[in-house]
Description:
Layout: H1 2-7, H2 10-27, H3 33-54, H4 71-99, H5 107-128, H6 134-140, H7 142-151, H8 153-168, E1 176-179, E2 184-190, E3 194-198, E4 204-208, H9 209-212, E5 217-219, E6 227-235, H10 241-253, E7 265-271, E8 276-284, H11 290-308, H12 338-344, H13 353-361, E9 364-368, E10 373-375, E11 383-389, E12 392-396, E13 399-404, E14 409-410, H14 412-417, E15 424-427, E16 431-437, H15 438-447, H16 450-470, H17 480-492
Antiparallel strand pairs: 1-2, 1-5, 2-3, 3-4, 6-8, 7-8, 9-16, 10-15, 11-14, 11-16, 12-13, 12-15
Amino acid sequence: xxxxxxxxxxxxxxxxxxxxxxxxxxxxxxxxxxxxxxxxxxxxxxxxxxxxxxxxxxxxxxxxxxxxxxxxxxxxxxxxxxxxxxxxxxxxxxxxxxxxxxxxxxxxxxxxxxxxxxxxxxxxxxxxxxxxxxxxxxxxxxxxxxxxxxxxxxxxxxxxxxxxxxxxxxxxxxxxxxxxxxxxxxxxxxxxxxxxxxxxxxxxxxxxxxxxxxxxxxxxxxxxxxxxxxxxxxxxxxxxxxxxxxxxxxxxxxxxxxxxxxxxxxxxxxxxxxxxxxxxxxxxxxxxxxxxxxxxxxxxxxxxxxxxxxxxxxxxxxxxxxxxxxxxxxxxxxxxxxxxxxxxxxxxxxxxxxxxxxxxxxxxxxxxxxxxxxxxxxxxxxxxxxxxxxxxxxxxxxxxxxxxxxxxxxxxxxxxxxxxxxxxxxxxxxxxxxxxxxxxxxxxxxxxxxxxxxxxxxxxxxxxxxxxxxxxxxxxxxxxxxxxxxxxxxxxx
Length: 493
């Protein structure tokens, strides 16, 4: 019965199966390419079986009589067969490229192959269904092709350059690239005609593929996005170069924005009567981290130089008498006093100069050896400590969260609010710190009760930022109201 239904009226059956295949193919989800391909192959196989069983050869042109009522049906049937053949081939191509795992990079090549398949299908329909002499048609259209080629010269150059870039794969979508003309950014789109680059200024630069193919290209994202930065620092030659190199290496070690592996490098580049030139080489995780890392390194170099008594050299272009240059014997770098550190701490910005001076007079010096644990996680440190020299690592649950350098401070949450430390603090190098205890700070709060509210607001915001950055539990952060209440309780006692 199935044989009679299919081969009793083969042309009607073939047309019915062809249109049914089109409907089913459109109803299937695009997210199921394998299922769509299987359906395409099944319908194409059934149509081929019907054609072979009825003696119709789709790859041969058979003349039609003008009065033949079957002519239209034959044309429709053979056209549907060629359409289904093209779709089956395209299904294979798309499925293969998706399974390769690089659909974005292969998009241009995929579109090109699919276009060739559709052109081949159209020419086959003209030749084998309508009997158009393709060879003669191509020969007579040569002049038209030349005219179109000249008119589309730039567009064709972009297309073929895009194909070359796709096959060569110097970059993929998402890579950060640097071009020889200075353009730099992340590749966000690549199509037939142009490549779109998102720059650090949050602008999209559209470069024609033919123009891009002529430029030198550096792919910053390969083999990974870690990016080398080089900073040149000029130090006054008042200390031995080995001492200066040690201070610079310590400054890089205390930096939180750079990559630890491979370790940063300190290279001595030159020495004369005016300066010791030092080159700092370090890596960041991605190009977007260059500015924050450079800012932090410069800040830490300044702080470590000030802590170690090093002086920055004058610029090379400056005019100065040699006799006026500092030497190892005559250099008098400013000392880092407790008062200077107190003036740099945000918690104490509301204090007057006299109050800061009185507070600085109460400080004591604390020394820690390399490896000493200054305070452990969830313990309270009832005094504020300002780092005079050295590096301290802050760890939470065994994971390093950051490092403290000269000029940083810790313990203010325990001193002023009775809060526990959220990190274990360990000395990575010998550390010198100035300590301020509660007894020294109590007279200030008794004289200025409003100072407690200002300090509570600052500590609440600082604790919240620390908690968010370290992914800590909410109980480590308190509101300004709770901190204010705690401060008044502590200092009343």
